[in-house]
Design brief:
This protein has 340 residues and is α+β, with helices and mostly antiparallel strands. The protein has six helices and 23 strands.
Length: 340
Amino acid sequence: MFDKERTQRYVSRVAQEIRTFLLSDRCREVLVFLFFVFVSFVFWMLNTLDDTYKTEFRMPVRLKDVPREVVLTTDFPDDVTVGVEDRGTVLLNYMLGRTFFPVSFNFKDYQQAGNHVRIPKDELLKRISSQLNTSTKLLYVRPDTLDFIYAKGEAVRLPVRLNGEVEAGRQYFVSSVTFSPDSVVAYAPPEWLDTLTEALTEPVREMELKDTLHRSVRLSARRGVKYVPAAVEMTACVDMYSENTVEVPVTGLNFPAGKVLRTFPPKVKVTYQVGLRRFKDVSAEEFFIGVTYEDVLRNRDGRLPLSVKTAPEWVSRIRISPPMVEYLIEQQAVEEDEEE
């Protein structure tokens, strides 16, 4: 149980011991020692800051009065790194106490320079130096040259194309890779627009996929070109393989009138792989196996090799069984139209 009187006596005793220590000779000796340590530290700091040092800091830059119809197709930097040399007290003021105004450049001053504007190094250094003390030595500026490229509304729409690899795992396949949106608007100077044909994504590498993939992909940066939007949504549809077999007749092509191709067997088995989503969409009628009359004339061993002439685009790994058939050419009578 909490004892209030006992606690008050304990606090009073501690306070008395602290008061006694502060009024003691030992405490006065400690305070005097700390005072001289502080004074020594101040003199050391003043002496140290009087030496010359090198440091760097960041200074903001701005491009002002850009017209609404102008689109900057390159990024103008928000700041530059400034390297300086001066006494420690001056540098400490730069780093802790002084706020630099942005180094501003007016767009209208550079309109006559064309679509690619370069701000000279000397001009940049002059504007930075105006905010520094006269005793400060400006060592470097990074970047030391500012430039920007712009377009006045000129644009072209470009299709988005994949730059990279998207592969499925075993027993799976990538049925399609689509982008949303599938095209973007590219802004660039007029003389550059004719050279643009597509907007590539940043390098993409997705391997061993077993399910549909959705991810945001940025478009690969191209200096002087600005894409709107700068990123698209990529969808890679993954499906599982399924195998099926259908019977398809062998058909003769380009045979003269009265000549008919007979093969043994007349139908062959076509085995193929297709995704489960498309399994019911494939039928035997969508395959065509044809042998031309020219193939027969070139044949010497009495057996014709077969190949699939047409097939649905979403099937793969097509196999024919048997791959070769025996044949004969049947001659049939040709009925001629009687003239009246």
